[in-house]
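Protein Record: Sequence and Backbone Structure Tokens
======================================================
Scope: a single protein chain, as residues and as a discrete description of its fold.
Tokens: labelled as protein backbone structure tokens, with as many entries as the chain has residues.
Position: the record begins directly beneath this header, with no further notes in between.
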Amino acid sequence: MQLFDFIKKQTQLSEKSVQNTIKLLQEDCTIPFIARYRKEMTGNLDEVQIEEILKAKNYYEELVKRKTSILTSIEEQGALTADLKAKIKAAESLILLEDLYLPYKKKRKTKADQAREEGLEPLAKIIMAQNAHNLQQIAQNYRTDKVKDASEALGGARLIIAEWISERSDIRDYMRNQFHNFSIITSSVVKTKANNEKAQKFKDYFDWSESLKKIPSHRFLAIQRAETEGFIRVKLKADKERILQYMERKIIRSSGECAEQIELAIADSYQRLLKPSLENEAFLQAKKRADDSAIGVFAKNLKQLLLGAPLGEKRVLAIDPGFRTGCKLVCLDAQGDLLHNETIYPHPPQKDQKTAIKKISTLTEAYKIDAIAIGNGTASRETEALVRKIRFKNEIQVFVVSEAGASVYSASSVAREEFPNYDATVRGSVSIGRRLQDPLAELVKIDAKAIGVGQYQHDVDQAQLKLALDRVVESCVNAVGVNINTASKSLLSYVSGIGEKLAENILEYRTENGTFTHRNEIKKVKRLGNKAFVQSAGFLRIKNADHPLDDSAVHPERYALVEKIAKDEGRSISELIGSTDLLHKINLEKYVSGEVGLPTLKDIIAELEKPGLDIREKAKVFTFNQNIKTIDDLREGQLLPGIVNNITNFGCFVDVGIKESGLIHVSNLANEFVSDVNDYVHLHQQVIVKVLEVDVARKRIQLKLYRKR
């Protein structure tokens, strides 16, 4: 099967879409660029569909590479028949390919190999022919110094037969289906660890059984972690009798002595060779499903977090709250540059609230502060209460901002490069303030895993997790667009076609030449060639540029088309921008050509209507219930304001202003079946929740979604 046919079958997409997308990917075009600026070529595929094509392409290439290696290996053994070659070439999965290769695979010396060395393979063939009589007498002829009697000869022959059976692709395929679709995963506590304090969080799995096929991702990963930590034992149970009966029907064609020997060999093959192998394979497949699901949840959460509402270019006073070490204050200008930093001590043990209030008031006036950002860690509630006591001369909005990953950033090389003369506490405070101004621009500096918006992120395939999260970051950065004159190296490196080295070169150019004034100037950046320019230009914005389209998502390759549209309307491009009524009256069919179709034309009109529009919502002020300070203050039936701070497959967690987050189980999200939590809530969404249950001892809070704010 050819590449395009394989991908078409895997993705169910049209031949034209697949062929053109593959062509673009082979030309090193990025997924965001293809999805946004090559819609006519792909048939208007979105980023998800393009990534499906890329995954299928990578799988096909891996399959072809493995086929070549296997064919070479079998041919060198002189065992490659025309039928086997055809089967290998026709294989559409790596699993089937490995089944076909199994009999020819070099492996450690087996019991069957030893039996062959003792000359017992002819006896095994006689038994498998199933037409011999008086097998005991025949087996006597195979006695040697090592094979003392007929019983040992028959035992050796059975070892060879068991190996033959284990290498049959039809048998393996049937057993694979049984283990994957009908097996039961069971777990039991290691008795010596039953009372271990750390084991208690896995108490639900001390005696557990469930269908392997139906087990949810979070439960499988929890069970696996409990097993890894030595608290439980995990087994897989399949219908042994059903499998053995199938094997016997497929292999045994007679009755009598030969059938008896084959029946024994089948049982041995199942227990010693097939079960361990296919049980392990079923576990690995279930682990992959669980990983894919968990990574999918993490990716959705990360996307929501990165596209969180920005405050925008406002002057911010950020506070990293604390008790003993005090609260670190930093003042940032509208571009996020550090203007001032110091520490106040309003909380115990110093409890100098008077000085703290005076200092915050003075700084807000001196630096013309528009908003205050308070980290949501230790002493956050106390600091928020303090700030809300202050009577500012001007209106100042107060926000509580997630600190997740701020400590990781503050100790990173990126932070040291940005603030070489400041310690980690100052860097962390700056990160809190900048997150309020623009979450995306700040969070791209942190390893996505450290942001903590997933489930069991340390238990899943780390390479797959990194790949998925990098794709999410790339997608979000390019969906929003980047101001080339203010963006950090971290942000620029995710722009389509740029990467880390060109991002460094852009910063170097800015330092030497000042701000960019038009998009064509980007070509002057060292080593930024035409290919990189084409890939990146549409995603890079230039404020107050020479050309009115340079601060829009209209690609420079379409400027001439926009100029023609403007000329036909008797207007300049500047006059066309924002003229909604006029833009909606334009006959787009008139401008359709071999290169440009309606999808691109509609994108251009939408962009002209609101050029450079930020797709994100605006930041909203939020206040927790000031009477709720600890879990002891919660009561069943209370209605509380909260913020969704994590989403999983089994529900979402909500911050209600105390140390412990409460869980809205999937069954308490709506009065209907919920298949995807993300359809009902999103990260950082403001909600009203009802307290259902409070378990102070286990520090667990059960909530119900009352309404969205």
